[in-house]
Design goal:
4 helices; globular; alpha/beta; six-stranded mixed beta sheet
Length: 150
């Protein structure tokens, strides 16, 4: 039996994956899925390849994050901005000088909150993947957020 999981991938500019990660995210997602399935009995015993949905790509000068769900049949982008509606267990895959697979309740909460915020910021009717770029002094702006912040 497969369980829906959220995968948080962090790629350092020291990683061999750095140069292609932003423009060819699917390659990094495949590598992350391979790393996770070799470390998770529940995921590697799946009868079918994982159903993958990339949610967010976000980058800074020295770090890139990609967040995606696997086996999440209950995902509803119309409700994903609501607290507690779209929270999943999170597996962390870090590609840097060394590759690491881990979990953390604190980071799980932060990742789920960030996904919720991305849905809120991008507005009604928006669908992932959400692309957020902080490089070269860019400040992300959102023209039609669901929640109007004062």
């Amino acid at each position: 039996m497969t369980v829906a999981q959220r995968i948080f991938v962090s790629i350092s500019n020291k990683s061999i994956h750095w140069s292609r990660a932003w423009n060819y995210s699917d390659e990094v997602v495949e590598k992350a899925v391979a790393r996770v399935t070799t470390n998770s009995a529940a995921l590697c015993s799946a009868d079918a390849p994982p159903q993958i949905r990339i949610l967010v790509k976000e980058r800074w000068t020295s770090r890139l994050w990609i967040v995606f769900d696997i086996f999440n049949k209950e995902y509803d982008p119309g409700q994903a901005h609501l607290p507690g509606v779209n929270d999943l267990p999170v597996i962390i895959v870090s590609f840097g000088e060394n590759d690491i697979v881990s979990t953390s309740k604190l980071l799980e909460d932060q990742v789920n909150d960030s996904i919720r915020q991305a849905h809120d910021n991008h507005g009604v009717g928006s669908e992932p993947p959400f692309v957020i770029d902080h490089t070269n002094g860019q400040i992300p702006t959102y023209s039609n957020p669901r929640t109007q912040h004062l």
